[in-house]
Amino acid sequence: MSKKMRLAAFVTAGPGRPGGWRYPGSVPGWLDASYYHNIARTLEDGRFDLAFFPDILSVPDRFGGSTDSQLRYGALGSLRVDPLPVMASMAAVTRHLGIAATVSTSYAQPFSVARTFASLDHLTAGRSAWNIVTSFQESEARNFNLDAQFDRSTRYERADEFLQVAAKLWDSWEDDALVLDEQAPLFADPDRVHRIDHQGQYFTVRGPLNVPRPPQGYPVLIQAGASSKGKDFAAHWSDVIFCSHASKESAQSFYTEIKERAATFGRDPDRIKILPSITPIVAPTAARAKELAAEIFELVPPLGGLSTLAYHLDVDLSTFPLDERLPEVEVPGVEGHYHEVREITERDGLTLRQLGKQYGGRTEGDFIGTAAEVADGLQEWFTDGAADGFTLQVPYQPGGFETFTRQVVPELQKRGLFRTEYEGVTLRENLGLDRPARGEWTTRAGGAA
Description:
TIM Barrel, eight-stranded parallel barrel, 14 strands, about 40% helix, oxidoreductase activity, EC 1.-.-.-, FMN, NTA_MOA, monooxygenase
């Protein structure tokens, strides 16, 4: 098989799941650099493309207006170490693994973000990636000198301009601008380093960047847009799209839609890799895998799961009866998660309490079983046009990564679905993505100058 599956690992710099940290196989080393070094080495041994770090800029208080449920149950925002230093630490103990960190366009400045990722790309020999988020929580806004969050339209307009400025800054050095001619002397050629003089609605930036153009041209750009505006943004800018689906059918629909949107915007659909999230449970027998899934699921407190869902939807779910179904609501937050839980609610007839437990400990039925059975499910999604690969979430860290790498990856390799060795040096090369030429951002921005 010529087309190869791509694999990313969703690594939380904190407990992540409200039940997983309680499982005996979980190791609570979130504040220890060696914890992340071990995960990095495990993923590189498994020939993963990249480690992907989500981030949250507050302890969420969307459930009942309090941080209690997050802190009490160890939900996703209860503890979250800054992913950028973690990313740099992991890169230092690996040679091939790409490292992606989340940075919000709502609470950062283009110059500092462009400089950070250009620096990381040089220091890692071309292995950096930026997961672009716009943020949507009032609790995050209040940590950044704002009384209220930007509305969705403003967030995406600002993000679009943010990406244009960042790309201009990465392009402000021509590829051969750093000369290092000791005899001339000529350190950097002034004629090949350019101010950008950007003046827009949200940003005024003179430039140039004080770091040469990154080895990858631009770091790999990741986005997870699920709303209409988010899908457009992702189809315009993303190299990799992270998403979440409750069924293969919904994944196929999303996959087709994004690829079509990308083509409409003048981009090659094959240059966007769509990697849905999976949370497999792997064991020597199918029966043991189901038992293990049940054991982990039992550890999930329903309110912990609902607290996480309330954060993702940006809806206070404490106002609804726990023993009734989630009603249809308007979602200011992540629409993709709402569509996912609506599908689960209608399909399984779950009450809100049951939905909280399901969401907090969610796994996918196609991916519970032996290594061969999990590989069967991955192969089906991959060959049926639902994914270019997958983003591996695990119910507990670091053991979940170790089990998948040691048991499922060899099965995928045996079937010719996944690499046995890294193909390139940079993350772009390993993902099968071209290095952007200077000015390539104008195509992604729809011809903006």
